[in-house]
Amino acid sequence: MCSSSLCSNNFVFLGELGCGKSEIALNKAISLAAQGKNVCFVDLDMTKPLFRSRDVSKMLDDKGISVCYSDQFMDAPVSNVGIEYPLKNKEIFTVLDVGGNETGARAIGRYRQILQDSGTLFYYVINPYRAWAGTIEHIDGVLGTILKAARVDLESIEFVANPNLGINTTTEDVIKGYYTLKNMLEPYAEISFCTAMNELSESAGEQIDVPVIPLELYLQYPWEK
């Protein structure tokens, strides 16, 4: 998704609850598999019952992607079974979908040294249309909490804009959302890339000053399909 991704095998997607990181992580894993890579997808989402990557594990398996997650009962802790091996294996491209807020982020904190040693790329996804991303104060508050729990330094983060309002999103929504977020972050950080649904990515990309990555939507309500 960026030039630095060419030299990394591990990709971690973080962000506030409902920002769309699961969709982006799924697209990344599927893109890698389409290139013939050996891909392991790790679902560490422990904060919501809907729109979890594990819900499309059959689809991922059909594409040759191994899926790793632990079943959860109520609020019971989730163990990270099978994560250390793919993270250390240079022959495996590992994509981690980390659950929103500090609960999910804490799950990768114990692997801090492995992640650092392997040159892992950390992406922090922000959807400017979410209520808790409406001001720089809200963004900073959630970001700080997540990074502290994940034990990730701010300098290691690449910011991703995901100006998405669901299946009714328009090109204008993408452009407006991107520049709203850019103006909020600009004094402090840069956005590495923006995402948009496949049919909007080309038109939005003509008016956005960072790469716009097209997304296929895999996590939808049945009536949206």
What's the SSE blueprint?
Blueprint: E1 10-15, H1 21-34, E2 39-44, H2 57-62, E3 66-68, H3 84-88, E4 93-98, H4 101-109, H5 112-117, E5 121-126, H6 136-150, E6 157-161, H7 171-185, E7 191-197, H8 198-205, E8 212-215
Parallel strand pairs: 1-4, 1-5, 2-3, 2-4, 5-6, 6-7, 7-8
Helix pairs in contact: 4-6, 7-8
H/E element string? EHEHEHEHHEHEHEHE
Number of strands: 8
Radius of gyration: 16 Å
Helix content: 25-40%
Major sheet: order of its strands? 3-2-4-1-5-6-7-8
Describe the structure in your own words.
The chain has 225 residues and is an alpha/beta fold. Helices cover 35% and strands 19% of the residues. It has eight helices and eight strands; from the N terminus they run βαβαβαβααβαβαβαβ. The chain has helices at 21-34, 57-62, 84-88, 101-109, 112-117, 136-150, 171-185, 198-205, and strands at 10-15, 39-44, 66-68, 93-98, 121-126, 157-161, 191-197, 212-215. An eight-stranded parallel sheet has the order 3-2-4-1-5-6-7-8, sandwiched between helices. α7 links the parallel β6 and β7. α4 (101-109) packs parallel to α6 (136-150). Residues 73-79 have low confidence and may be disordered.
